[in-house]
Amino acid sequence: MTSIIYPTTNFKATEQFFIERGEGVYVFDNKGNKYIEGLAGLWCTSLGYGNRELIDTASEQMSKLAYTHMFGGKTHQVAIDLAEKLTAMLPVEDAKVFFGNSGSDANDTQMKLIHYYFDAIGMPEKRKIIARERSYHGVTIASASLTGLSVNQIGFDLPIDALGVLRTDAPHYYRGAQIGETESDFVSRIVNNLEQLILKEGPDTIAAFIAEPITGASGVIVPPDGYYQKVEDVLNKYNIFFWADEVINGFGRTGQDFGSNTMGIKPDMMTLAKQLSSAYVPISASVIRGDLYEAMVEQSAKMGVFGHGYTYSGHPVACAVALKTLEIYERDNIFERAAQVGEYFQNRLRELEQHPLVGEVRGKGLLAAVELVANKTSRQAFEGGGIGAFAQQACQNNGLIVRAVAGSSIAFCPPLIITKRQIDEMIGKFSKSLNEILDFIV
Ligand code: PLP
């Protein structure tokens, strides 16, 4: 019996897959079997495994200064350098950054910043957040309340009502459209639903709208053209912030530097983690517009302190590794390379649209999902929702690690350093697995 309480695991199915080491885009299990890491760990190991520069950077920083904190005015150079480099890259005006440890705690921080800001400007009732159905924003009490997946809420007494999280439609045309509805009618209908929700609740009570530009763990939903422009028009009309959760999308994943740029969004707030350090060490960033920060300065002085901070906020080793990661992205043109390979990947994956099990292929850049269906014409899903896990296992048996998401979709998110030849290898293993599943079920 295990001594570990495993995260996001069926407790009856622990310790089945023992990963021992990694090299480039490959990992090896404890029996020496080799796998292509088609999900970059959990959507995060952008520079792959065994990157010598990141390893040396961590080691050198540990030798120089393994730890110092940032409470009460303490600072250190590597956090300052990281913040400057990072904020200069971001599509957020005069960006300011708060460092944390994970995507979940960074989203919690954003909620607190929202409350603090609207208190500071004398609008304490403007605090509700609109999140979408089928969204993933983390698992802490607050971030799981934003998440729109029942598996992260049922059994945990979530969402917390006091947080005032409101729900609006997922922008998934393939599953959400009504019979005969065009993409543009679908967009108009769901954005109208959003506006009606705002009017019903009262615009003065709503602070922000949170969205992953392209979703990850909730099924890799790429909204139809025009969706975000219409959403932004509505948000601007009622002075509601656009909060982009770029925990997966950020840093070259979707064909551009940030998902907000890929999808034409101008965010007021942005959450970053995962590829910020290529996952070599935990670090996250809650980013807000500069004028929001300016408005909180007096408030913090009045209260004596901005009463929020983690022991590991701005951890020097995490900052050093993140800074080196950003330098490598820039020096080696990683985002441009990933965009080119990503286009090749999307084309190769779309060849599978003809396969009898494939309902929809969706994605951008090096992020994608393939939805498996029982009937292509009617889009009927497989009963019981076990097909995704079954396919995930079939892929694993063929040396490919992918992840079942939203029950019946298989997600791909390989390291950004993957080559076209390795994409071919990945697609080959996936096609073989699909054919084996087809043989098994017919
Ligand atoms: N937001 C998004 C979009 C994510 O995909 C995730 C994790 O997958 C999180 C937040 C939570 O991040 P973490 O698992 O680091 O807490």
Describe the overall structure:
The protein is an alpha/beta fold. Helix content is 39%, strand content 16%. The protein has 14 helices and 15 strands. It has helices spanning 40-43, 52-64, 77-89, 103-120, 141-146, 173-176, 183-201, 227-237, 259-262, 290-303, 316-331, 334-350, 387-397, 420-441; strands spanning 19-23, 26-29, 34-37, 96-100, 128-132, 165-168, 206-211, 241-245, 269-272, 284-288, 358-364, 367-372, 400-401, 403-405, 409-412. Helix 8 (227-237) links the parallel strand 7 (206-211) and strand 8. Helix 2 (52-64) packs antiparallel against helix 11 and helix 7 (183-201) runs parallel beside helix 8 (227-237). The longest helix is centred in the C-terminal third of the chain and has 22 residues, at 420-441. It is globular. Residues 42, 102-104, 107, 136-138, 212, 216-217, 245, 247-248, 273 line the site of pyridoxal-5'-phosphate. Pyridoxal-5'-phosphate binds next to helix 4. Keywords: Aminotransferase, Pyridoxal phosphate, Transferase. Its cofactor is pyridoxal 5'-phosphate. This is Aspartate aminotransferase family protein. InterPro entries: Aminotrans_3, Aminotrans_3_PPA_site, PyrdxlP-dep_Trfase, PyrdxlP-dep_Trfase_major, PyrdxlP-dep_Trfase_small.
